[in-house]
Predict the 3D structure of the following.
Amino acid sequence: MPLRFFQCILVAFLSSTCCEAFTTTPPKMGLVSSVKRIRDSILNRERSRQDLKIGIAGFYDRSSKLWEEVWGEHMHHGYYIPEDRTDHQQAQVDLIDEVLKWADVTSAKKVVDVGCGIGGSSRHIVRKFAGSSAEGITLSPYQANRGNELAKEQGLEASANFQVADALEMPFDDNSFDLVWSLESGEHMPDKPQFVNELFRVATPGGRIIIVTWCHRDLEQGETSLTKKEIKLLNAINRAYYLPQWCSVQDYVDLLEQQGATDIKREDWSYIIAPFWKAVIRSSLNLRSLLGLLKSGFSTQRGAYAMLLMLRGFDKGLIKFGLLTCTKPSKK
C-alpha cells in the first residue's frame, strides 16, 4: 500500500543501517536510458507492468526486515477505536479481526492471502480458525522466505505456506479457497479487472472475498473523471510508490457485480486507520531519522516527500481506505 511504502521508508531512517538498506547496485544504463528515466520521473509518467513488478519486489526485499524490527510481523494499518490507543502492534492485529467481523466471516478452511507481506495475516487467521490452512503470495522473495521462517518458528509450517507469485496470474486451481483475503495490496495491481477475475477464479462457489485497499474517491453525479489537479496529485504519488492508476471503491463494486457477486458490502474506514499515520510519522522525528533521509538517496527522499502528497489527498477526501466484501455465487 502507498502508506506502507512510506512506513517502510521511515522505519529505515530509524536504523543505523539505513543507507545499506536502501542502497543497491543500479543497473548500468546508457546516456539515452538515463535521460529517459529522469524525464519520466520528472513528468510522473506511468510505469510499465514489468517495471512495477520489479520495483515493488525490490522495495519490499530491502525494507521488510527493518519494518519487522520496529513494527512487527503485520505490514498494514491498525484499527484505531478508540482513536487515542497507543498499542500499535495490537491495533494491527485488531484490524484483521475487525475486518473479518465486518465481513461476517466466522470460519474458514482454506485461505489465500493475496499480497501477504511476511505472512502476519495468514498466520493469525489459521490460529483463529482451527483446522484451517493458508497460502500466501507476494512478489518479494525476501517476504516469502521470511513468512515461511516465521511459520516454522511459530509451529505453523504445516498450515501456512508462502511463495513468490503474481496476483494477476495466481498459481492455484480454480475453486480452491473458501476465503480470499487481500489486505492493502489491490492498489498495486495494474489491471484491476484481471485482479478481481483472479480473486473470483480461485474462490470456491459460496466462498467469501475480502478486499481492503486504497482507492480514490467515488465520482459525483455528472463527473466523468477526477479533476486535473487530483489526477496530477495521484500521478506524483504513483511515480514515488510504484503504483499504477487508481480506481474508486465504486469501480470495484462494478467489477464485483460483473462477476455475479452476491452479498456485496462496502465501507470507508479512512477515519479508523488515520491515527496510525501519526504514529509512524512520530517514530521518524529524531536526528538519526533526518540524517538517514539526507543520506538515503533520491528514491527514498522522493518517497518521503510523496507522503506529504498522500496526506494532502487524504485531507481533501481524494484518497480513501476502502473495504469491500462479497460472496462468489454458487452457480455463475
Observations:
- The longest helix spans residues 49-71.
- The beta strands are 110-114, 133-138, 160-164, 177-183, 203-216, 262-268, 319-327.
- The two ends are 32 Å apart (CA to CA).
